[in-house]
Design a protein that fits this description.
The protein has 227 residues and is an alpha/beta fold. Helix content is 44%, strand content 17%. Bound molecules: cytidine-5'-monophosphate (C5P).
């Protein structure tokens, strides 16, 4: 079963709350990212925390600081939280250990491998030899071995990661566009059904829902497509 996460990319908490309420019947979770969190902080998250929340903060620092960051947001009870796999094993393990303090209701730790905005040339310039997919797989294995519960990945990586890693990891997948939808700045997309069939655990969909004339109907259509 694949679930739907709506990405609420706004700095306006009232708009976020209105969107959250409108799409609640069709979305299992809401994603709040850096933009929302830096503008509104924990109080902003609390405003809409009657829904499970995916806090997409992509933490990346020394292990002690990342652990402190995770502990600081545990009172918000996020269901999912992102860190950068390139922070290394000790940082990932520290994030997981800090999350464990919340017990059974702890946030699941998701690792971001290679940012999809990095093409092969840009990745090479950061010192990574070899292809992007190879680096995605290397960081994915490292993250899971260090205690990450899952990964954020591009739709075009889902099959490769499922083949290599099995059914265990949570795979959270942005870059989703319903057939015929405007792609915006997303270059490599799959439709909701294609990504679900490839093995995604959660689909992250932003503008096709939030910029629709009727966000509730747009979310319901996507939920129906993956049901
Ligand atoms: O509007 P759209 O559906 O493109 O939004 C996708 C969401 O997923 C945005 O919040 C974006 O920041 C996020 N995301 C992404 N690609 C990644 C990682 C995160 O689009 N590789």
């Amino acid at each position: 079963m694949t679930g739907l996460i709506a990405a609420i990319d706004t700095t306006d908490p009232q708009r976020a709350r209105a969107l959250a309420t409108a799409i609640a019947p069709s979305c299992g979770m809401l994603k709040l990212g850096l933009e929302f969190f830096l503008a509104n902080g924990s109080d902003g998250v609390r405003l809409i925390d009657d829904r499970p929340v995916f806090l997409d903060l992509k933490l990346h620092d020394i292990p002690n600081t990342v652990a402190g960051g995770v502990r600081a947001i545990l009172p918000l009870r996020p269901a999912l939280l992102t860190i950068h796999a390139s922070g290394g094993s000790a940082m990932i393990a520290a994030a997981r250990e800090a999350a464990e303090a919340a017990g059974a209701e702890r946030p699941k730790i998701l690792a971001v491998t290679v940012l999809t905005s990095l093409g092969s040339e840009a990745l090479h310039a950061t010192g990574v030899a070899g292809g992007g997919r190879q680096q995605v797989l290397r960081l994915a294995r490292l993250a899971l071995a260090a205690g990450a519960d899952g990964l954020v990945c591009s739709p075009l990586e889902v099959s490769m990661l499922r083949d290599a890693l099995g059914e265990g990891p949570v795979l959270v997948v942005p870059g989703i566009r319903p057939a015929g939808a405007d792609k915006g700045d997303q270059a490599r997309t799959l439709t909701p059904r294609e990504a679900a069939d490839a093995g995604a655990t959660w689909l992250v969909v932003g503008r096709p829902i939030t910029a629709a004339a009727d966000p509730a109907a747009a979310a319901a259509a996507i939920a129906a497509e993956i049901a």
